[in-house]
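Appendix B, example 12.
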Amino acid sequence: MANLENKLFDIGYMDTLSSGTTRLHQLDPRAKLITTLIFVSMVVSLGKYEISMMIPFVIYPMAMILSGELPFNYLLKKMVLVAPFAILIGIFNPFMDREILVQIGSLGISGGWISFFSIMMRFGLTVSAALILISLTGFNAVCMALEKLGVPKPFVIQLLFLYRYLFVLIDEASRMVRARSLRSFDSGRMHFKIFVSLIGQLLLRTLDRAQRIHLAMCCRGFDGHIRINRPVKFGFNEIRFVLTWSLLFVCFRSYNIPLKIGELIAEYF
């Protein structure tokens, strides 16, 4: 029960981080969303063997973390939490692609291992960019930016409700686990029949509470439009932010900068 409640607070902590006062926090959400989308598209467009070209892209998440004064350890824990999914996607590559592509002394590295590391690097870059976006902007503001950029309104509303009702689900689950612990003297064992019953009750209770929350939102004037407290304006700072990072991403995507640096060093030494 305590673990569930801790997870609930942990997820909501990203919305707390979005209330910061740095210059990145004050930027229009659309600027940060557009920049993140361009960053992700550039990273995923790289070839499966182009690990060296991904290295310069690390500059973006590190710059955002430092400039936005975000807790690095917290973001790292979130990435580690979902890392097994990326590992499962690429773990079989070394067994299917055994052609040696890199020879370091007597050690040969196959294409499968290179593509596996490539998947892990893409995962780290894209997931960190998404977490940083929410931590700097807040999920409500991200949804508002999607709506203003022309994303269909039903999709945006469903995305917002999916995020918000996740808290409802966890809250109801924590109540049920607490009630079971009190009635069973905190017994650690749970039979399958009881587990299935709890899942069914959780679904019904969550739907009922979600309906009450929706009615309360309608009573308070919710009309489907997403609004945030601070004013938003896409001005010069936002244009400069998007263009500067976009040009940098295009440069990283077009040129193998680590290779160029290595060639320059080799010429002098």
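The chain has twelve helices and two strands. The longest strand covers residues 100-104.
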